[in-house]
Design brief:
heterodimer; A: Rossmann fold; seven-stranded parallel beta sheet; globular; B: 123 residues; 8 helices
């Protein structure tokens, strides 16, 4: 099945391993891609992969910058970005809590607002938020991460319910252990990876392409019926009882 | 050169006709968004976005859509003048006179949107 994309695809956090792989898959579907990266490393990775990239900058101007770079307002949005802020709930310094809320919740809300307003003006759009299975089953130390992911899911769910009548739909995808990016860092310890794999129904971790293909589909116009909900891309991990000490 | 009210009215009618899939010829300055067009919050959002794009202005929904009108009416004419400087004195008086009419529906008209756009576009 060929997938269709109506307008450029914005890839927030597109410089990570998963983002670069999704960008390649989107290009194979002849989609027009613009990565948006907050870090210099991410922007460098995009440049090396020959993917047009914009700094995060002032987020309200993202739709305009997309139109200037690619000739059209964004038609699709994949939100992969997230900070690396993790701590026990009572262990976070107060000032870091404000920064967490600003970066992992408020900034996401501002980006979604700006992009969906642009989509509303063209009456067409598709937004996908990359969440985590930890959003609903956080291990100790993942509380802040989980709360921000749940907030993101709620924002995307509301975008889907409020704007679907205007052709703009949205959903979230809950990924679990993936041997890429920060997942790779976590799993890059033989025993941890072995134990994680042992609780997966398939007895192995998800491969990168097993996340890339469903994310590419979810971003496409063909997936517009999947709206205002969260989809598990976790190999079935969410359906099984976890061993102590293993976190999703 | 400043935008004339007629030019602004034409632009507002065009964008509202497009959003509500109405014939532009049916619309005029006295058309009520709520009572005549059954406008919902999503429609107001779209109007706000398109108004901003059409007039190159930043739309304050609170002022443009007379969101707090009922509350502000408690303060009488001075309060309305402060909150809605884009409306003429005559229009503000009319709003005060009609405060208990329309069964609680917002009295917002296309003309009010035009006045807001012209006010925000002034040199």
């Amino acid at each position: 099945m060929r997938l269709s994309f109506d307008g450029p695809v914005l890839l927030l956090g597109g410089g990570c391993t998963l983002g670069l792989a999704v960008a390649a898959a989107l290009r194979a579907e002849e989609a027009c891609v613009l990565a948006v990266c907050g870090s210099e490393a991410g922007r460098r990775a995009c440049v090396e992969a020959d993917i047009p990239v914009e700094p995060l900058g002032e987020v309200e101007s993202l739709p305009r910058r997309c139109a200037e770079r690619l000739g059209a307002l964004p038609g699709h949005l994949l939100d992969l970005r997230h900070s690396r802020r993790e701590s026990l709930l009572a262990g976070m310094p107060p000032e870091d809590i404000d920064a967490w809320a600003a970066e992992d919740i408020a900034l996401r809300a501002r980006i979604l607002r700006a992009v969906t307003r642009a989509m509303l003006s063209r009456r067409s759009g598709r937004c996908v938020f990359v969440s985590s299975s930890a959003a609903v089953r956080p291990s100790p130390g993942q509380g802040w991460y989980a709360a921000a992911k749940l907030a993101g899911e709620a924002l995307y769910r509301s975008a889907g319910t409020e704007l679907a009548a205007r052709g703009v739909t949205a959903c979230s995808a809950r990924l679990s252990w993936l041997d890429a990016g920060r997942g790779h860092e976590f799993l890059d310890k033989g025993e941890v990876a072995r134990r994680a794999a042992s609780v997966m129904p398939g007895r192995r971790l998800l491969r990168l392409e097993e996340a890339v293909a469903p994310l590419t589909f979810l971003l496409s116009r063909e997936a517009s019926g999947i709206n205002a909900c969260s989809v598990d891309i976790d190999g079935g991990l969410g359906a099984v009882k976890l061993m102590e000490g293993i976190c999703p | 050169m400043s935008l004339t009210r007629d030019e602004a009215l034409q632009r507002v009618i065009e964008l509202v006709a497009d959003i509500f899939e109405r014939d532009a010829a049916e619309l005029h300055a006295q058309t009520h968004l709520m009572a005549d067009l059954l406008c919902e919050s999503i429609d107001l959002l779209e109007i706000s976005i398109r108004l901003g794009a059409a007039f190159h202005i930043t739309v304050d929904d609170e002022a443009a859509f007379l969101r707090s009108l009922r509350l502000l009416m408690e303060g009488g004419a001075p309060e309305l003048a402060r909150a809605y400087p884009h409306l003429s004195e005559q229009r503000r008086e009319e709003l005060l006179r009609q405060r208990d009419q329309r069964g609680g529906l917002s009295p917002l008209t296309l003309g009010d949107l035009v006045d807001y756009a012209v006010w925000m576009s002034r040199d």
